Amino acid sequence: MKKILITRKLLRSNEEKASKLWEAKLNLNDELYSQSKLVELSQGCDGILTSLTDKMDEATINKLPESIKILSNFAVGFGNIDLVAAKKRNIAVTNTPDVLTDATAEIGILLILGACRRASEGIQAAKESNWKWSADYLIGKQLTGSRLGILGMGRIGQKIAKIAKSLGMIIHYHNRSKLSSDKEQGATYHDNLKSLMEVSDVLSVCCPASKETINLINKETLEYLPKGAVVTNVARGDIVDDEALLDALDRRKVYAAGLDVYKNEPNLNPGYLKHKSVFILPHLGSATKETRTAMANLAIDNIEEFFKTGSCKNKVN
Ligand code: GLV
Question: Among candidates 97, 100, 41, which has minimal Cα distance to 302?
Fold first, then answer.
C-alpha cells in the first residue's frame, strides 16, 4: 500500500477515499505546515498531495526523501511548486484542471460585478444603515456595452467570456496564440498586451503565474488602460504589482478593482483594505462543495494513475 502525505484537510468524502486507497497521512487539524515540517512528515512516503499554500521551492524539494515520486497539487495553478527542481529530482507534478473552471469563472464574474457596481461601498453602507436612496447614490459602471479584456483565454477565461457576453459585454482577449473560432465565440484577438489593455474598460486577469507573467500588470502596463478602467484578478496575486495598482486607483486612472488572489496570501497589501473602490474576496475561486470534491478526487486519481502507469495526463513537468 502506498503511503501518501496529504498536507491540508480535505472534505470528508475525499479523505475517506484516500484512506481506502493508501496509508494516508491526514492533517486532521488543518495545520499550515512549515517547509521543514513538510520535509519531516514526508519521510517514508511515496507521494504528497500538496495544496497551493505549500511553498515547494527548490530548497524544500531537494530535502524531500528519495521515496517521494509525485507532488499532486490540489489546484489548477502550480506556481507554488518549482517544476524544474522537481524534474531534476525525477518527481512528477500534477494539477487539477477542468473541474474548477465553472466555479472560478463564477467568481471572476462576481469580481467584475462587485468592482463595477461598487459592492464594497454598498455592503458597508447597508450594514451601517447609513444610506438613503437618491438618483445619484453609489452610481457604478454598467456592464452592458462595456468592453471586457481577458488576459489569458484558457478554460477559465473562455467561461468568463461566455457569461460576460450574455451580460452584453464586448469581449477582447490576449493569449499566446489565437484560438479557434468555436473557442473564441466572436471575441477579438490581440497579439500583444498593450493592444488588449487599450480597449479594456474592464480587465480580467485569468492567466497562470509564471516567470513571464509576474508583475505583468505594473506601472507601465496600467497606463495602457483607458482612463477609469476596472481591473480584476481571479488568477494569481503575483501577476499584479500591488503598489502600481493602488497608485493607479489613487489617481483614478483605475476606477475600481476586484480581487480574489494576492501576493503573500492571506496577508494582502494593507492598501487594498483601505481603498473603498476595491472589492476583495479571500481566494474563493474554486470554493464550492462540488468543485472542491471534484478537485480532491482528481488529485487522488492523479496519484493512482501515476503509480499504475508511470505517468499521468495531468502531469505538468
Ligand atoms: C485555485 O486557485 C487553483 O489554482 O486551483
Answer: 97
| pTM of the predicted model as reported, rounded to 2 decimal places | 0.95
Domain coordinates of the chain in residue numbers? 3-99+288-309, 101-280
Q: What CATH number was assigned to the domain covering residues 3-99+288-309?
A: 3.40.50.720
Over the stretch 20-59, which tens digit does the pLDDT of each residue have? 999 999 999 999 999 999 999 999 999 999 999 999 999 9
Instruction: Please give the distance, rounded to the nearest whole angstrom, from the Cα atom of residue 290 to the centre of ligand 1.
Output: 15
CA dihedral sign of residues 164, 168, 174, 177: positive
What confidence tens digit (pLDDT) does each residue in 226-248 have? 999 999 999 999 999 999 999 99
- Ligand 1 close to Cβ of residue 100 (< 6 A): yes
286 lines ligand 1 (CB under 6 A): yes
